[in-house]
Amino acid sequence: MTKGKKRLLFVDDEPNVLEVLRRLLDLCGEPWEGVFCTGVDDALDALRREAFDVIVSDIRMPKKDGIALLEAVRGDEALSRIPIIILTGEGDRTLKRRVLDLGATDLLNKPVGREDLIARLRSAIRIKEFEDHLANQVEVLDGLVRERTRQLEKSHREVVWRLAKAGEFRDDQTGNHVARVAWCSYILARRMGRNGGFAELLFLTSPLHDIGKIGVPDKILLKEGPLTPEERAVIETHTEIGESILRQPPKSIMMAAQAIPNGYTTDDEALPSPLLQMATVITRSHHEKWDGSGYPDGLAGEDIPVEARMVALVDVYDALRSKRPYKPAMSNEEAVAILQKGEGSHFDPRMLESFLDENNHIVEVYDRFGEEGE
User: Fold this and answer.
1) pLDDT at 273 over 80
2) Starting from the edge strand earliest in sequence, which strands make up the sheet with 84-88, in order?
3) Higher-confidence residue: 362 or 89?
4) Distance between start and end Cα atoms, the chain
5) Pair 177, 135 in one domain
6) CA-based angle 108:111:116, to the nearest 5?
7) pLDDT at residue number 345
């Protein structure tokens, strides 16, 4: 705890009382420095200019009294930890109870005895030192928590990105499809007035939209030429496979995690993180269509989650622009023409309008993270 000179603020409307307090302070032999004010406003000005360790205030003063000072100090977060000793000549227990209820640290009756005052000041200073020490420790711990949270968030983002690229690598050797989807989804979200938190979360989660392709056999996923109805049905299961991957870990994995000494604990009832919540919604619903003809649930219109509608639009555009085993890449103009044909059937009309308004930025993303890009 801190040592050295302590600064004490004395407040009393009677100058002769302040002079007595000054002499007591000079004679006590302690490394204390006093500042003396004859009114509450002057005291508050001093408190805002300088740091103090203890306040000693009379209760009865004209204009603003000790209660007003007490309320002002306790109501100011920057000053609220300063101990306050109230001086009173009153025998009214109700008044004393009120003062204590408002947060006074101690009460002293006037006239003040030298030894009594010094003892109360020492006690108040110890309280202030302890509270300052505690506040510093809390600040240090808060800093450690913030840094640890930042590191965990960074780790989560890296894991999400690598998982998304691993899923996409099976039919996109550069893995840049997920980068383009992430950036274009972010651009679309901001264009539609979504706040930064939503747009940033969409940026992080949209790359996981096709993670369920991990469960689709290569002979179907990489087939050159048209798919049979049966093969198409298998492809469509990737939305539900992806949801099952993201929604809840298998119980065997959860039990194994609990068995690790000093390892993580899990809670079946715990809600998933916002990142996994959004990723799960996108993964399941990004093939729904505005007119209800999509899959897996046949949702229509605004029943389709907005994040899934955004990724659906971006994903189709990117699929059209990309070379695949079963088709060549299209130009931006060709892709836009196909999107426009899907207005009101495949795509949310207002969302499509926003996407087309941002087409220049979308093309910039595609140029940066193109098929040959790294």
Assistant:
1) no
2) 32-37, 6-11, 54-58, 84-88, 106-109
3) 362
4) 55
5) no
6) 50
7) 96
- pLDDT value for 214: 85
Is the link from the previous residue into 111 a cis peptide, with omega within 30 of 0?
Answer: yes
Query: In angstroms, rounded to a whole number, what is the distance separating the alpha carbons of residues 81 and 119?
Result: 19
Which residue type occupies 303?
D
Closest alpha carbon to 276 in 233, 247, 309, 256: 247
Backbone conformation region of residue 184, classed left if phi is above 0, alpha if psi is from -120 to 50, else beta: alpha
Which structure tokens are listed for 146?
A: 């913030």
Provide the domain limits for residue 227: 169-368
In whole angstroms, what is the distance from residue 149 CA to residue 138 CA?
16
> Does residue 98 sit in the same domain as residue 181?
no
Q: Tell me the CB-side half-sphere exposure of residue 216, using CA atoms within 13 A.
A: 26
Buried b (16+ CB within 10 A) or exposed e, 312-347: bbbbbbbebbbeeeeeeebebeebbeebeebbeebb
Neighbour count for residue 247 (Cβ, 10 Å): 14
Domain count, the chain: 2
Reported pTM: 0.58
